[in-house]
Specification:
Elements: H1 3-16, E1 29-35, H2 41-52, E2 57-64, H3 76-93, H4 103-107, E3 110-112, H5 129-139, E4 146-150, H6 155-167, H7 170-177, E5 180-184, H8 191-198, E6 203-205, H9 234-242, H10 246-250, H11 264-267, E7 289-292, E8 318-321, E9 324-328, E10 333-337, H12 340-343, H13 346-359, E11 380-384, E12 388-392, E13 404-410, E14 432-436, E15 444-454, E16 461-471
Parallel strand pairs: 1-2, 1-4, 2-3, 4-5, 5-6, 11-16
Antiparallel strand pairs: 7-8, 9-10, 12-14, 13-15, 15-16
Helix pairs in contact: 2-3, 5-6, 6-7
Length: 473
C-alpha cells in the first residue's frame, strides 16, 4: 500500500468516527495562582470556588502577592485557613469525583512574594520564595503549559522572569517563556505592562491599563440587561454557598466591592465542553478575547484611582477585550458588550458552583452531577455551500438519571462566517438538528454549541462545540 493512501485512510478513520468513540486526552492542565488575598474579600471567594474544582487541574502553587490595593503586605495565612477548610471536606468531595488533592499536599505549594509594590520588588536582590517557586515550576520536565491566573499584582512573576533572563541563555529562557499562559485581572501593578513589553512572546490575556470600567472580567458580577443578576446577589450566595453548606461554604466571605472579580481568570480552564483554553477567541466561561494591540483607553472611568499604575500604549498584541451580542429570550431584547462574553454563562457558572459546594457535605445520591453530552459525529465537520447536514447528540446521558434539555445554537463571534445561520425547525429541545449550510465564496468556520442541561437541583449544564467548515461548491 502506498504511504499517501495509508495516511488518507487514517485521516478518514479519525475524523469520521463518532466523537464518543475517539479517545480523549486525560491530561490535566497545570495551574499556578497569584493572589493579593486580603486586599478584598473577593480573592477568598475565588479561592473557595477554585478549590471545589481542584481535581480538574495539577495545582503547582498558590502564591500570596501584593497589588495596587495592598502594597506592603502579603497574606499566605489566609490561603492556609481556606485550604484547611477544604481539607475538612476533601474526603466527601472524593465521593463525587476522583482526583481531589489533599490539603496537606496543597499546603506545601503555598508560597509568598515580597511585601513590595510592583517594580519596587523586581531586580537584583528581590528574589522571594514565590518567584523561586515559579522558576521551579517552569523548570519541571513537563511539556504542558503552565497556566497562571493572576488575581492581583504580577511582580512575583516579573521577578521570576527577570531572573530567568539574567541567568539563562536566550534559547533556554525562551523555552520557559513559551510555557507560560498568563491571565491577569486587569493591571494591578506596574509590572504587568513591563512583562508584556519585555517578553513579547508570552501568552497573555488581559484588559490592560489603569482603568477597570473597560474590563471583561466585570461580567462576573455586574448587573446587566439579559443577565441573571439574582444568582450573584447576597441572598443567593447566603442560601446556596455560605449557610448550611459545611466549612468550605462557611469560609466564603460576604461581598464587599464585587463578587469574585478574579474568578474569570480560571473559569475558562474548567473542563465543561465549551472552554478551549488555548483558543481564547472561541469564548467560554472565562470570557472571549481576540489577539490584537489595544489602544490606551482615554475614556473616563469611575473605577480609576489617582495612584493607579500609569501605562504607555501597548507595544505588542495580546489576548484582550472582545464583544459578544447576546439575545435574552426572557427579556426579549439584546445586549452587546465585552462583559457579555462572561455574563452570558452566569447562571450555568453559579449553578455549577452551588452543586460542588453541595458535594462537600452530601452523599453522592443526594447531590446533582453534570450531564455528559455526546456526539454521533466528529467535533469538526466539513460541508459544502447549501448542503444539508445534521448535528446529532445521540448517546448523551446523565449520571443521576435526570431528564435533560437540549439546545443547539450558533456562536457567531467565535467563527469566521459573518452571518447567522437559520435553523429550521428551531433548535430548542432537539438532540438531532438539521442545518443547511450557508452559501460561501471562500472557506468559513461556524461554531455550533450543544448545551445540555439536566433537571436536577441545581440544574447543571455541559456542552459540546462543533466547528463546521463550509467550503464553496
Amino acid at each position: 500500500m502506498k504511504q499517501p493512501t495509508l495516511k488518507l485512510i487514517l485521516f478518514l478513520l479519525i475524523f469520521s468516527f463518532p466523537a464518543r468513540l475517539i479517545a480523549q486526552s486525560d491530561k490535566k492542565l497545570r495551574v499556578l495562582v497569584l493572589s493579593d488575598i486580603e486586599a478584598d474579600p473577593d480573592d477568598s471567594q475565588s479561592l473557595v470556588r477554585f478549590l471545589t474544582y481542584a481535581n480538574q487541574w495539577d495545582i503547582d502553587g498558590i502564591i500570596a502577592t501584593t497589588s495596587i490595593h495592598q502594597k506592603k503586605r502579603v497574606a499566605p495565612e489566609t490561603i492556609y485557613k481556606i485550604v484547611t477548610a477544604y481539607g475538612n471536606v476533601q474526603p466527601n468531595l472524593l465521593k463525587h469525583e476522583k482526583g481531589y488533592p489533599t490539603a496537606e499536599t496543597l499546603k506545601t505549594k503555598i508560597k509568598k512574594g515580597l511585601p513590595l509594590y510592583g517594580m519596587e520588588g523586581v531586580g537584583e536582590g528581590h528574589d522571594s520564595e514565590g518567584s523561586d517557586w515559579i522558576i521551579k515550576a517552569l523548570d519541571k520536565a513537563d511539556d504542558r503549559p503552565l497556566w497562571m491566573p493572576v488575581w492581583g499584582g504580577t511582580n512575583t512573576l516579573a521577578q521570576a522572569l527577570w531572573k530567568i533572563q539574567k541567568t539563562r541563555t536566550p534559547a533556554q529562557a525562551e523555552k520557559l517563556y513559551r510555557k507560560l499562559r498568563v491571565y491577569t485581572i486587569s493591571d494591578q501593578d506596574d509590572s504587568g505592562p513591563w512583562i508584556r513589553k519585555t517578553f513579547p512572546t508570552i501568552f497573555y490575556i488581559c484588559s490592560p491599563g489603569y482603568t477597570y470600567g473597560q474590563a471583561t472580567w466585570l461580567g462576573m458580577t455586574m448587573a446587566a440587561d439579559g443577565a441573571n443578576n439574582e444568582v450573584v446577589s447576597n441572598s443567593w450566595l447566603a442560601k446556596n454557598i455560605q449557610q448550611g453548606h459545611g466549612p468550605l461554604g462557611a469560609a466564603y466571605p460576604d461581598v464587599a466591592y464585587g463578587m469574585e472579580g478574579d474568578t474569570p481568570a480560571f473559569l475558562g480552564l474548567i473542563a465543561n465542553g465549551l472552554n478551549e483554553p488555548e483558543h481564547p477567541d472561541f469564548g467560554g466561561w472565562g470570557g472571549r478575547y481576540t489577539f490584537y494591540t489595544p489602544a490606551l483607553s482615554t475614556l473616563p472611568d469611575r473605577f480609576a484611582r489617582p495612584n493607579w499604575p500609569v501605562t504607555e500604549a501597548e507595544t505588542r498584541p495580546l489576548w484582550t477585550n472582545a464583544i459578544d451580542s447576546v439575545y435574552s429570550t426572557v427579556e426579549k431584547k439584546g445586549s452587546r458588550s465585552i462583559q457579555a462574553t462572561i455574563w452570558r454563562w452566569r447562571e450555568e457558572v453559579q449553578h455549577d458552583f452551588a452543586a460542588r459546594i453541595d458535594w462537600t457535605t452530601k452523599p453522592y445520591a443526594a447531590a446533582n452531577h453534570p450531564p455528559v453530552p455526546m456526539l454521533a459525529h466528529s467535533v469538526r465537520l466539513t460541508v459544502k455551500s447549501g448542503e444539508l447536514f445534521h448535528l446529532n447528540a445521540d448517546g448523551t446521558y446523565d449520571p443521576d438519571g435526570d431528564s435533560m434539555s437540549y439546545l443547539w445554537f450558533q456562536y457567531p463571534e467565535a467563527g469566521t462566517y459573518p452571518g447567522v445561520v437559520s435553523f429550521r425547525p428551531y433548535a430548542a429541545n432537539l438532540y438531532d438538528l438539521p442545518v443547511t449550510a450557508p452559501v460561501v465564496s471562500s472557506p468559513q468556520t461556524i461554531h455550533f454549541i450543544l448545551k445540555v442541561t439536566d433537571k436536577g437541583t441545581p440544574a447543571l449544564t455541559r456542552y459540546k462545540r462543533v466547528i463546521v467548515t463550509v467550503v464553496p461548491n
